[in-house]
Design a protein that fits this description.
It comes from Struthidea cinerea. One of its GO terms (cellular component) is ciliary basal body. Keywords: ATP-binding, Ligase, Nucleotide-binding. InterPro entries: TTL/TTLL_fam. By secondary structure, the chain is of the alpha+beta class. Among the domains are: 255 residues, ATP-grasp fold, B domain (D-amino Acid Aminotransferase, Chain A, domain 1, 2-Layer Sandwich), CATH 3.30.470.20; 116 residues, Recoverin, domain 1 (Orthogonal Bundle), CATH 1.10.238. It has 19 helices and 18 strands. The strands form four sheets. Strands 7, 8, 9, 10, 11, 13, 14 and 18 form an eight-stranded antiparallel β-sheet that branches. A hairpin with a 4-residue loop joins strand 8 and strand 9. The radius of gyration is 26 Å and the shape is globular. The termini are far apart. Adenosine-5'-diphosphate (ADP) binds next to strand 4, strand 13 and strand 14. Adenosine-5'-diphosphate binds next to strand 4, strand 13 and strand 14.
């Protein structure tokens, strides 16, 4: 808890919702600026579309999506064309309101004409997406996977994936969508928040039965059926890395605007929740990314009609405690300090104490003795590490550790091995060619000019064109201005933001347009790559020249 009037800064700030909570000038914050906006359904779909335009095969793990209302006619048109070319295609679509969660406002349709244009959808933009009709079933039920991913750093990119996750089950046996069953949410939507209200929901004390299980228990069952579980994991790892690569350009724009380079500021990390669906053929498909995944380790139980109590959920506890524990271990400032000096214990944690409180409440209500004992030990450990974290000297830390019957030699020694596995930069060489929009974003950020902004003004855009020497007799500066105005106006008409100017996506569109013009016959990613190289080279040359002039 951050006591009122505290003057000393913290090493780690653990915020409940967003980056913006206080003026923070140092340490590490568990949220990135702009993450919530970046993973919203529409923004995510746009970022994925850009990547699908560049690398269609690599990004085929995200269902084809259209943004409503602005792409309604495009959606109708494309579906009609696809149906004409393949009359046996009988698609289903899922409509999801932007910014919605927990299945709120979601519905399925068979025909584009069934989109509800009155009421909510008009006032609330949405994504309409191809529905995955043949999901992998277990016990005849549809389920999805929630995986926890730690984005430890944006620059350089560092990604960790939790070795275990959750599988959330539907509560009605699955049938492929028909007009008759489209509205049956317990059959089609895997959201815990919906299925909990079904009479068929099973709370289980075991991690491999019931309506919420560990993902590892699913893998075990798949493996016993002879499935290639190793390949599945490697596909999931690539899905996660590719998705984060799609999100980083936008995140970097927010980052430089909130924490300008060269000024004092904190660094950031964030735990993300990835929702993944497995198809019948074991292909992982991304459904969405959550910026604030629930870290609750208990659930509500109705003791008698209308009387509820929070009880511990062993499945949630198994997965989530490990994720939080390992995140704290990985961002532990002591690690860095231990490397250069001998232990100077100086960790302050600003952590919302709900985790500990809810654990205590849960333990008090436990009936199973063994489970109670296990959880008490866990609570003691958590308390111990929070306490260790607040010690200001090694002596104090030693004193604190004396509270435990068998005091560990170092905090790390008492902990199980890491459940978070590093996947980036470990596999960076396989994926770095996909980081093309990142390089376009770096050009964009370079010309933003005034710090604290996320949009490029007309002068900034002109300077970019001039410095990269992209205008010529076929592409005059007047044409540059027209390109800027056309694209910027269209993007701003779709946004509710007040700040005027060219946003990153608009710049990316303009950049692709320039690349197509310059390198006509190549595939898009080669056109963009060639133009990025030209721009980077010319800017580097200009920089060298300026250095020489400066010296002169
Ligand atoms: P929310 O944020 O409201 O939970 P999701 O995108 O996660 O929205 O969708 C809710 C549920 O709908 C998912 O958990 C999944 O069961 C189902 N779902 C979503 N998109 C698809 C899809 N394209 N194909 C099949 N099922 C889907």
């Amino acid at each position: 808890q951050f006591p009122l009037g505290r003057r000393l800064p913290c090493d780690i700030y653990w915020h409940g919702v967003s980056f913006h909570d206080n003026n923070i000038f140092s340490g590490q914050v568990n949220k990135f600026p702009g993450m919530t906006e970046t993973v919203r359904k529409i923004t995510l779909s746009r970022a994925m579309r850009t990547m699908q335009d560049l690398f269609p095969v690599e990004y085929n793990f995200y269902p084809r999506s259209w943004i409503l209302p602005e792409e309604l006619s495009l959606f109708v048109e494309e579906v009609r064309t696809m149906k004409d070319s393949n009359p046996s295609w009988k698609p289903t679509f899922i409509v999801k309101p932007d910014g919605g969660c927990q299945g709120d406002g979601i519905y399925l349709i068979k025909d584009p004409g069934d989109i509800r244009l009155t009421g909510s959808i008009q006032s609330r933009p949405a994504v309409v997406q191809e529905y995955i009709c043949k999901p992998l079933l277990m016990d005849k039920l549809k389920f999805d996977i929630r995986l926890y991913v730690l984005l430890k750093s944006l620059e350089p990119l560092e990604i960790y994936i939790a070795k275990d996750g959750l599988s959330r089950f539907c509560t009605e046996p699955y049938q492929e969508p028909t007009l008759k069953n489209l509205h049956q949410v317990f059959m089609h939507l895997t959201n815990y928040s919906l299925n909990i209200h079904s009479g068929n929901f099973i709370h289980s004390d075991s991690v491999n039965t019931g309506s919420k299980r560990t993902f590892s228990s699913i893998l075990c069952r798949l493996s016993s059926r002879g499935a290639d579980v190793k390949k599945l994991w490697s596909d999931i790892i690539s899905l996660v890395i590719k998705t984060i690569i799609a999100l980083t350009p936008e995140l970097k724009v927010y980052y430089q605007s909130d924490i300008p380079a060269g000024k004092p500021g904190p660094t950031c990390f964030q735990i993300l929740g990835f929702d993944i669906l497995l198809t019948k053929n074991l292909k992982p498909m991304l459904l969405e990314v959550n910026a604030n995944p629930s870290m609750r380790i208990e659930h509500e139980q109705e003791l008698s009609p209308g009387v509820f109590e929070n009880v511990p959920s062993p499945v949630d506890e198994e997965v989530k405690v490990a994720v939080i524990r390992d995140t704290l271990r990985l961002v532990d400032p002591q690690k860095k300090k231990r490397k250069d000096t001998h232990l100077s214990f100086h960790t302050y944690l600003l952590i919302f104490p709900t985790q500990l409180q809810s654990l205590h409440a849960g333990i008090a209500g436990m009936k199973d003795k063994q489970h109670k004992h296990h959880s008490l030990k866990l609570s003691l450990k958590l308390k111990f590490y929070l306490k260790l974290g607040s010690c200001q000297s090694l002596e104090q830390a030693r004193e604190a550790s004396g509270e435990l019957p068998a005091a560990p030699k170092s905090p790390e020694a008492a902990l199980p091995s890491l459940c978070l596995k590093q996947v980036f930069p470990k596999y960076a060489s396989e994926f770095s060619y996909l980081r093309l929009v990142d390089r376009v974003a770096a050009l964009f950020i370079r010309f933003l000019g005034v710090k604290g902004t996320t949009k490029l003004g007309p002068t900034g855009f002109r300077t970019f064109i001039r410095n990269c020497r992209l205008s010529n007799s076929n592409f005059s500066m007047a044409a540059v201005d027209i390109l800027y105005i056309d694209i910027t106006r269209r993007w701003n008409s779709m946004s509710i933001e007040k700040e005027s100017g060219m946003c990153l996506q608009a710049f990316v569109e303009a950049f692709f347009c320039l690349a197509r013009k310059k390198y006509k016959s190549l595939p898009l990613h080669e056109q963009v790559s060639a133009l990025v190289e030209v721009c980077e080279c010319r800017l580097a040359a200009l920089h060298r020249k300026r250095l020489v002039w400066g010296c002169g």
